Amino acid sequence: MIIPQSTERVFRPLPQLVIEANVNPQQLARAHAAANQDPLAYWEEAAQELEWFHKWDAVLDDRYAPRFRWFPGAQTNIVHNALDRHITTGVKNKLALIWEGEAGDTRKYTYYEVYREVNKLANALRSLGLGKGDRVVLYLPLVPQAAFAMLAVAKIGAVHCAVFPGFSAKALRTRIQELRPRLVITADGFYRGGRLIALKNAVDEALERGCDFVEGVIVVRRAGLDTPMNESRDLDYDAIVRRERWEAATEVMGSDDPLFILTTSGTTGTPKGILHGHAGYMVGLARTLHWLFDIKPTDIFWCTSDLGWITGHSYVLYGPLIAGTTTVMYEGHPLYPQADRMWDIVDRYGVTILYTTPTVIRMLMRYGDQYPAMHDLSTLRLLASVGEPLGVDAWLWLYKNAGHSRCPLLDTWWQTETGCAMIAPFPVSVLKPGSVHRPLPGISVDIVDEAGHAVDHGTLGRLVITRPWPSMPLDFVRPEDFDAAWQQNAWHTGDLALRDEDGLIHIHGRADDVLNIAGHRLSCAELELALQTHKAVAEAAVVGVPDRIKGEVAKAFVVLTPEFASLEDHGEIIRLLRQHLRKEVGPVAVLRSVVFVESLPRTESGKIARAALKALGEE
Ligand code: PRX
Asked: Which atom of ligand 1 is nearest to the CA of 411?
């Protein structure tokens, strides 16, 4: 066990928690030692806990490294483990999903009910001629049908490609053109922050020209909007599932068949498409649910992410269902109609595990202690955070006000590429706010300098993953993006980190030109390209600047075109640029300020000297 040098800011688990934990400190130490010595045996044991149609010929095939193949020869389908197998056990009649709309409408589904909904949709998709390997873009709000859609697509062996509904029609179009799906599933609209937001029209706009490969658009009627339907292309969700049978065969998938593609921002202007598969991904997930999140049969698990992000895929949907637990989905804004909404949800459903983000925590903290105090939060037993650095103040606030100083708060580090949590404390760990603790058993990381050599404790370096892990990507849509991530025999995460005097890891943000706005990854280049399409902009450079709530927001340096350069009203230009960015990328792209400059500083090779601009931004 770790003996921290300073006891000032460490938090020990309560004895009762240690006694009841799925993995106690001794077991954890043994697992670390065993996994270090023989990682393949460790992961093989994890895989044995799931059901397979056919087991693997080997745990790992490294012949095509760095495209490591986990569980080669195995046959499975993640949906078999997330749904089908539960139907023959006592889990069948347990609540799988508790959904709440922003207006307070609720729906609850048992495992059996989800199973039937998914099978009906799977049959409908098959009737449309879809099957193994076909891509389906999901542009959906957080409604139960979004979960059914992911599972149904996976069940028939097709590949779901979710796009967060906070992306604009333009951003959706870029992704659709890159992914070339046969089908898009969307909704008429949804509720957020008290407003009704239309969605289907963005799909119409995205598909306007040159997307003939999209054969159909399925529309979920969520908001009762009078949505124009294109008769030769659009289908009503309810109408197509209504007549289908509730039994459907689950497609047999090889261990390197893709399950989903998620596009995420890298250093270039074009988002990277990351492919995850059925086998290794589910093994990594199952282990984190049982070990890290300490899942018990009575848990109510609420991860506040949207399904459109990896956190939603892994910890709203697949992870909790594989573990046979009850997952909570809330459609709306965490502050609607007031700042106690989340605590109200925890109270009413008896949420036991709450997994959220630093931005949400900071937002709630700003509204004050009185809101969590309005509700009975005694059911909570575990808190967790992901997506951005969680500062010590926000950590302490949540620990005290939601956890009443008795629930461990786990700051978990991972990314779209890793599929599931990689570095995090366990519920039984001695917690040190500000640190993400150590890699989980079976995961090996290091912090290195530019040449790939390990740096000393206390020195900032690049965070790399030094051994393959089961939930690693199968590949990227553009293989060269994958090759760029494997350098010097390790996976480069793009993050800066250091190890403190206790050997615990602290994440210091990105090492590359990727912004983390409220936990949403956006590349500087994507925002720059979007700004440059405005007629006022000759050149643009974007850097991240710290923000008290969102962690980071964008700041732009803009060289105006001659036509606009003489305009006095810079305020109006800024307003137009903000509006433009919203339209080009979506509301996720929060532009804090714009500085008008004569020219942009460039490096010798002609690249924008962002470090110099960042320094300017901090003045
Ligand atoms: O910079 C790290 C940050 O979020 C990035 C991954 O973003 P994304 O692929 O969108 O996945 C987010 C959720 C898994 C990382 O490269 N990040 C993630 N978790 C943490 C973090 N930064 C600091 N602390 C964390 N716990």
From this structure: 26
Question: Under DSSP, is residue 225 helix (H, G, I), strand (E, B) or coil?
Answer: coil
User: Is the minimum distance from the CB of 386 to ligand 1 under 6 angstroms?
Assistant: yes
C-alpha distances (whole Å) from 305 to each of 59, 165, 197, 439 are 32, 12, 18, 23
Residue nearest to atom 7 of ligand 1 (CA): 415
Domain presence at residue 502: no
pLDDT of residue 613: 87
Distance 521 CA to ligand 1 centre (A): 8
**If we measure between CA atoms, which residue out of 81, 609, 523, 546 comes closest to residue 320?**
81
Q: Does any ligand 1 atom lie closer than 6 A to the CB of residue 416?
A: yes
- Report pLDDT digits (tens) over 245-264: 999 999 999 999 999 999 99
**Number of domain units in the chain:** 2
Residue 521 in contact with ligand 1 by CB distance below 6 A: yes
Quote the pLDDT of residue 5.
46
CATH no. for residue 177?
A: 3.40.50.980
Q: What CATH number did the domain enclosing 612 receive?
A: 3.30.300.30
Q: Is 385 helix (H, G, I), strand (E, B) or coil?
A: strand
- CA–CA gap between residue 408 and residue 425 (Å, rounded): 9
> Which of 222, 254, 286 is the last residue in one of the domains?
254
Judge whether 168 lies within some domain.
Answer: yes
With contact defined as beta carbons under 8 Å apart, do 460 and 508 qualify?
yes
What integer pLDDT is reported at residue 1 of this predicted model? 32
Could you tell me if the CB of 251 is within 6 A of ligand 1? Answer: no
Last residue of a domain, one of 254, 273, 305: 254
Cα(495)–Cα(189) distance, integer angstroms: 36
Q: How far apart are CA 269 and CA 1, in angstroms?
A: 45
The Å distance, Cα 520 to ligand 1 centre, comes to 9
Ligand 1, from 495, 520, 522: best to mutate by most atoms within 8 Å of Cβ? 495
Residue span of the structural domain in which 146 resides: 108-254
Token output for 454: 């390990």
Q: Pick from 401, 179, 143, 181: which is nearest to 270 by CA?
A: 179
- Asked if residue 218 is part of any domain, the answer here is yes
Ligand 1 center from residue 450 Cα (angstroms): 21
Residue 219 in contact with ligand 1 by CB distance below 6 A: no
For ligand 1, whether the C-beta of 388 sits within 6 Å is yes
**According to the 3-state scheme, what is the secondary structure of 4-51?**
CCCCCCCECCCHHHHHHCCCCHHHHHHHHHHHHHCHHHHHHHHHHCCC
Which residue minimizes the CA distance to atom 24 of ligand 1?
A: 389
Per-residue pLDDT, 606: 80
Cβ of 387 below 6 Å from ligand 1 = yes
Q: What's the confidence (pLDDT) of residue 8?
A: 55
Quick one: pLDDT at residue 567? Answer: 86
Low-confidence ranges of the chain (pLDDT < 70): 1-8, 617-619
Q: In angstroms, what CA-CA distances link 584 with 277, 346, 531, 543?
A: 31, 36, 8, 18
Instruction: Specify if 541 maps to a domain.
Output: yes
Q: Is the shortest distance between the CB of 306 and ligand 1 below 6 Å?
A: no
